[in-house]
Amino acid sequence: xxxxxxxxIARHHEFEIPKIKWSRFIGNIFHVENKEEAEKKLxxxxxxxxxxxxxxxxxxxxxxxxxxxxxxxEITPEHFKQSDEGEPTSTAGKPILAQIQxxxxxxxxxxxxxxxxxxxxxxxxxxxxxxxxxxxxxEHAETIETEIMKTVKFTYGFDLIPIIxxxxxxxxxxxxxxxxxxxxxxxxxxxxxxxxxFKKELSExxxxxxxx
Length: 212
Known about the structure:
The protein is an alpha+beta fold and about 210 residues long. Helix content is about 30%, strand content about 35%. The strands form four sheets. It has a five-stranded antiparallel β-sheet, sandwiched between helices. A three-stranded antiparallel β-sheet has the order 10-12-11, with no helix packed on it. A two-stranded antiparallel sheet has the order 1-9. The protein is elongated, with a radius of gyration of 23 Å. The two termini are about 20 Å apart.
């Protein structure tokens, strides 16, 4: 039973690499929790650099805990998106996303803005330029670890309140909401690494009455 974490960034950061054949490449990275936040930050950059040739991007959010066939832990995103925004297919969004994945970041948006310098870079040159800009802005940003939390709901009888309180305290559970009716309807937030052990203890201590 170990706490699980995902890596993300602490705050927005911007970084511009040296010009490549007179083209400017400016990277911006943001922490985002969902699609709405990602799209909002993207629009901010598009407005800030509305005179740019391209504002290409990639983002992914959500951290899901999975296990492969051999029982090895995998943390995968709930959703991801990439866009070449007018550049040749797979020359911008894909290398940006590859850098996010390579640095094992979750809940981030990376936008690379290009001001065309008058000289074509070719497919290989574009892939390298967008990938390098994404790499540099990621590596210059401050990274942090954040707990992977899971929200669950369950119901239990009033006679089990003392037992549930002890288990909740043991697993550092955050109670989001409790409704007292015929029983107690409880909604909690728990670290994903504790979830299976928590479910087991609830079931055993309630003699199978509580199921999640």
